[in-house]
Amino acid sequence: MTARFDSVADAQRLAQRRLPSSVYRALLAGSEHGVSYRDNTAAFAELGFARRVLGESSSIELSTTVLGQPIALPVVMSPTGVQAVHPDGELAVARAAARRGTALGLSSLASQPIEAVVAANPQTFFQMCWSGSKDSMLHTIERARSAGAVGLIVTLDWCFSQGRDWGSPAIPDQVDLRAMLRFAPEVLRRPGWLLRYLGSGRLPDLTVPNLAEPGAQAPTFFAAYRAWQQTPPPSWDDVRWLGEQWGGPLLLKGICRVDDARQAVQTGATAISVSNHGGNNLDGTPAPIRALPAVVDAVGDQIEVLLDGGIRRGSDVVAALALGARAVLIGRAYLWGLAAGGQPGVENVLDILRSGIESTLAELGHTSIHDLTRDDLLVPDGFTRPLGVR
């Protein structure tokens, strides 16, 4: 798998050609009618740039810090669940991020154990949800701490929407004989996906090792997901408690409202990510880039503000930074790269974004991402969506 591609869109097309249809369609998940899913990317097309004719052309500075971790470019890998698009899964993503000098978030629903992922990339943030008992959450936190995770991500941007008007793919709870027979026709149309797994000496595995209780087998993805659904949602006091148990850098993922952002500051969080879970929560929630400016204006001088959602080009990253984000998180973009080319494919995606950031900065006459301001953008009237403003 050494194919190179020139854009994230090319990576998506390659991923579609290489993955069984159910696996590919799972990457396109979006709730209900997909209004938020589409707006996440479409919103960037409404923004313009105030290009300069002449500007600095020396070396471009892209480095920054997130949760105290120095990174070589303002792009972090967002935590995503079981990465069955490639047998190396999160390990390939971790290695690619390390080679390009950036950090990653590892989902608690990942297919690879946190110990192996941290060994591949010491700049690993561990993601978890409010799920199960406090004792089980404490066990998960302690495992992440012992493994060497350098930050904790707590996901708050999920509302368990079940509907998807264009249909969700059927995904088995585990890869058993019945599942293999059911999905054989579509797998045979994309045999390379299965051959890569067989070459690694195993079949696709939908268990999540990072949520295994002491002395017990790891649950399947959907068993863990159901446990999450059945756990009453946390209060802000619960979130504060979770952060205190961790005792280190903490990012709250899923903040879109100003009042929620202020609450996040009160909990002592290090950072927040303005996110609508890739369009997977309440449909009709605005694109994060629309909600970002109001959140930055309210709390940007008190807490690190990141953006997660709709990033497909380096110019998208620049737009988010110009509106006040410290960095962005990417999800589908690197998963398409992973499906298209394994670890080199993920590196390819990061290279595309880096090149796009550099060229956009040069066109704006800047030599550093830290020089970006809203004056570099053309923001049309009515673009922003201030939410929860009192």
What's this model, at a glance?
Helices cover 43% and strands 11% of the residues. The chain is an alpha/beta fold and 390 residues long.
Helix content percent band: 40-55%
End-to-end separation in angstroms reads: 52 Å
- Percent of residues in beta strands? 5-15%
Overall mean confidence score, pLDDT: 91
Uncertain runs: none
Reading the helices and strands in chain order gives HHHEEEEHEHEHEHHHHEHEHEHEHE
Strand order of the largest sheet: 4-11-10-9-8-7-6-5
Description:
There is one protein chain. By secondary structure, the protein is an alpha/beta fold. The chain has 14 helices and twelve strands. It has helices spanning 8-18, 21-26, 35-45, 89-99, 114-120, 134-147, 177-189, 191-199, 221-230, 236-246, 258-266, 288-299, 314-322, 332-364, and strands at residues 48-49, 64-66, 69-71, 75-77, 104-106, 124-128, 151-155, 250-253, 271-275, 304-308, 327-330, 377-378. The strands form three sheets. The chain has an eight-stranded parallel β-sheet. Strands 1-12 form a two-stranded antiparallel ribbon. Helix 1 packs antiparallel against helix 14 (332-364), helix 11 crosses helix 12 (288-299) and helix 13 (314-322) crosses helix 14 (332-364). The longest helix has 33 residues, at 332-364.
